[in-house]
Amino acid sequence: MVKRAVFFLSDQTGVTAEALGHSLITQFPGQSFREMTVPFIDSEDKAREAVRTIDAASKNDALKPLVFSTLVQPDLRTIVRDADGLHLDIFDAFLEPLSSELKQQPTVTLGGAHGMSDIDAYMKRIEATNFALANDDGGVSRDYDVADVILVGVSRSGKTPTCLYLALQYGVYAANYPLTDEELETGTLPDFLIEQKQKLFGLTIAPLRLQQIRKERRPMGNYSSAQQVRFELREAAKMFRRYGIPHVDTTEFSIEEISSRILDSTGVERRVRP
Amino acid sequence: MVKRAVFFLSDQTGVTAEALGHSLITQFPGQSFREMTVPFIDSEDKAREAVRTIDAASKNDALKPLVFSTLVQPDLRTIVRDADGLHLDIFDAFLEPLSSELKQQPTVTLGGAHGMSDIDAYMKRIEATNFALANDDGGVSRDYDVADVILVGVSRSGKTPTCLYLALQYGVYAANYPLTDEELETGTLPDFLIEQKQKLFGLTIAPLRLQQIRKERRPMGNYSSAQQVRFELREAAKMFRRYGIPHVDTTEFSIEEISSRILDSTGVERRVRP
Question: What domains does chain B contain, in order, with CATH numbers?
Answer without folding.
Answer: 4-102 (3.40.50), 117-266 (3.40.50.300)
